[in-house]
Amino acid sequence: QVRLVESGGDLVQAGGSLKLSCTSFGIGFSISAFGWYRQAPGKQRDLVALIDSDEVTNYEDSVKGRFTISRDVAKRQVYLQMNNLKPEDTAVYFCYAKAGRRQIEFWGQGTQVTVSS
Prior knowledge:
Elements: E1 3-7, E2 11-13, E3 18-25, E4 31-39, E5 46-52, E6 57-59, E7 67-72, E8 77-82, E9 91-99, E10 104-107, E11 111-116
């Protein structure tokens, strides 16, 4: 069974840090893109950060310089180090993976990040 399992979401004060982790299970193809999206209440799901198989990264403008994405290919994991968190970072964070020749997309269930002011 294919699953993306996130962990690391929590309640943190503004200026604090969190590290999200996501582990993929059952994806039998090479993951070409691995990353994170987020969705705040009443808003659409937006890209936060992606990393591809060449370790090229892409960040949403508001998180540049504060968030860092990385991956461990052997462990089939992706991480999101989030520093200097702001209340506007509050959202459910979803792990995302795209894999295989057909570029099939997979989603995790989400992990809640809440930043208090």
